[in-house]
Structures are given as C-alpha cells and as structure tokens.
C-alpha cells in the first residue's frame, strides 16, 4: 500500500497535475509566440498592401491619362491577358487602369470624409463632456436620435439633394459617420476629467475652455485618430454603395461603386472579370487599412492586447 501511495501521490510522475503542468506551460508560451508571429505577419502584409495602393494611386494616373468617354468596341469584354491583366469592360476600356482610378476616387472620399467626421465627432463629444449637465444630456440624446436612422438611408437622403459628384458623397459620409467618434471622445473626456492634473488646473483658476483645449483634447487625440483610420474603410464601402445605387458619382466617372454597378449585365452574361476585380479593389485595401488600425489599437491599449494573447 505504501509503495502504491508513493508512486501515485502528489509530486510524483504519475500525478496528473504534475505530469501536465510543463506541457501546459509550453503550450501557453507557444500560443503567445504564435499570436505574436500571426500579428506581425498581419501587420506586415497590411502595410505592404496599403503601400502598394498608395503608390498605385499616386503613380498610375500621371502616367496613364484615362479618357472617361473613350470607347473601343473592338476590345469589348476581353478576358484577362498580358495586354489587359484585368481584362476590359463593356466598351473596351482597360479594367486595371479604371480600377486604379476608381480606387483613387474612393480613397479620396474615404480619407476626407473620415477626417471631417472625426473633427465633428471630436468637437461634439468634447463639448458634451466638458459642459456636462443639460448640455450633455441634450447633445447625447441628439446623437441617439441620429444613430437610430440607418447610415445608408440618411446618406441617400443627403446625396439626393445635390447633383452627382465627389463632394456630395463626402458630405453625406461625413454627416452620417461622426456619431461613434462623438461617443468615444465623450467617454474619454469624462475619464480624463477625473485625473489629478485636471483637478489641479481647475483649482489654479483655469477656465473650462482652457482646461478642455490644453488638457483634455490632447488626451483624446490618439483615440480620435484611431477612430478616423477605422472610419476610412467604412467610408469607402459607403461611397461604393451609394455609387452602386446610382446616387454617388456620375456613371461615366471611374469609382469602385460605379464599376461594379456597370458590370451587372456583364456578370449575367457570364463575364466575371468586370465584377471580380473592382470588388477585390474594395475588399482588399479596406481590410488592409482595418488591419493597420487594429495594430494601432493594440499599441495604444496594451491591456487589451495582453488579454488577447492570453
């Protein structure tokens, strides 16, 4: 009996806890290493895609002058080849060039709209949190009211008031995407108001405006910048949806949404490339931007990153 207890008691090789503890430790370390390598690969690939996209939209348009009205019926709906890597559209225009031009327009809309929406959301959120009281309640109730309306529906209403063009789409996207930034900034300002240096500034006689500008706004800039970067993919999708519905840019102007919209009849006829490549130009760059934004989020919030690693 003593021999049996000696071979199966705690601390022996037969003890399940002791036997599996080293394995569990190695598994946890391996999981952390795999998580870091996966994150590094994701960030590297996202950065490479974003760099390629930026270089393409900066280099290709000056080298290739796209004629929006050009028609080459002899090259109509050619499949991908060495001469036309992405094939041609229903009037013979090179799809690779048109996708690059469309991506340039979509990025312009996305970046400008994200910046404008971030400025509006930061101002509204900081105002609500700094003023407090009934101002905070009224502003946030207005934010709730606008949030209850679907973005696309409100965007259609705004775009319908203008002629088709780039800037109506920018205005539409900006006016429908500042709400989440306002909530984030308000929460961050409320958190910063309880910091000792803010109490010291108020005790020293600093005005509410000075405290907001000098102490609170600099503290929310990282979160506001992250919100702007995360908003760029959403703005690109929003522009593509409006253009696909025929409410964004003119149908002859190259944008990713108009390219997909114009390729519907070709897809029904069995020609897949006019739809596939513009769709990839929407999906791949936006996922890459979102990947970089996720890496930025993990950097400014290490606690969340450590929780993900565990």
Describe the structure in brief.
By secondary structure, this protein is mainly α. It has a single domain, classed as Orthogonal Bundle (MetI-like fold), CATH 1.10.3720.10. One of its GO terms (biological process) is transmembrane transport.
What descriptors fit this protein?
310 residues, mainly alpha, disordered N terminus
Describe the protein:
The chain is mainly alpha-helical. The chain has a single domain (44-64, 74-303), classed as MetI-like (MetI-like fold, Orthogonal Bundle). 75% of the residues lie in helices and 0% in strands. It has helices at 2-8, 16-63, 95-131, 133-147, 151-159, 166-176, 179-192, 196-203, 208-244, 256-262, 264-268, 273-300, 302-309. The chain is elongated and about 80 Å long. 31% of the residues are buried. Mean pLDDT is 79; it is low at 1-7, 16-26 and 304-310.
Can you tell me the CATH class? Answer: Mainly Alpha
CATH topology title: MetI-like fold
The portion of residues assigned to helices is over 70%
Number of domains: 1
What is the helix tally?
13
Q: Would you identify the regions where 5 or more consecutive residues have pLDDT less than 50?
A: 1-7, 16-26, 304-310
Radius of gyration: 27 Å
Beta content comes to under 5%
SSE topology string = HHHHHHHHHHHHH
Family: Belongs to the binding-protein-dependent transport system permease family.
Subcellular location: Cell membrane
Keywords: Cell membrane, Membrane, Transmembrane, Transmembrane helix, Transport
Domain ABC transmembrane type-1: 103-293
């Amino acid at each position: 009996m003593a021999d049996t207890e000696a071979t199966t008691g705690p601390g022996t090789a037969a003890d399940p806890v002791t036997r599996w503890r080293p394995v569990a430790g190695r598994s946890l370390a391996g999981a952390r290493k795999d998580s870091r390598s996966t994150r590094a690969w994701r960030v590297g690939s996202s950065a490479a895609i974003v760099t390629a996209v930026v270089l393409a939209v900066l280099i290709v348009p000056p080298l290739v002058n796209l004629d929006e009205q050009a028609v080459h019926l002899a090259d109509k709906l050619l499949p991908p080849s060495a001469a036309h890597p992405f094939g041609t559209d229903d009037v013979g225009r090179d799809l690779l060039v048109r996708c690059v031009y469309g991506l340039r327009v979509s990025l312009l809309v996305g970046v400008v709209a994200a910046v404008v929406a971030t400025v509006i959301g930061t101002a509204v959120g900081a105002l609500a949190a700094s003023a407090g009281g009934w101002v905070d309640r009224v502003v946030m109730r207005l934010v709730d009211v606008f949030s209850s309306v679907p973005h696309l529906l409100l965007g259609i209403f705004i775009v319908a008031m203008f002629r088709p063009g780039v800037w109506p789409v920018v205005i539409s996207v900006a006016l429908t995407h500042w709400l989440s930034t306002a909530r984030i900034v308000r929460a961050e300002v409320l958190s910063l108001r309880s910091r000792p240096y803010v109490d010291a500034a108020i005790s020293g006689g600093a005005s509410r405006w000075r405290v907001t500008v000098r102490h609170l706004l600099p503290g929310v800039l990282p979160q506001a910048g992250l919100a702007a970067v995360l908003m760029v993919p959403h703005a690109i999708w929003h522009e593509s949806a409006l253009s696909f519905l025929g409410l964004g840019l003119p149908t002859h102007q190259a944008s990713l949404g108009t390219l997909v919209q114009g390729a519907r009849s070709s897809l029904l006829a069995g020609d897949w490339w006019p739809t596939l490549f513009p769709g990839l130009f929407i999906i791949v760059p936006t996922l890459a931007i979102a990947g970089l934004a996720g890496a930025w989020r993990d950097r400014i919030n290490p606690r969340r990153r450590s929780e993900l690693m565990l």
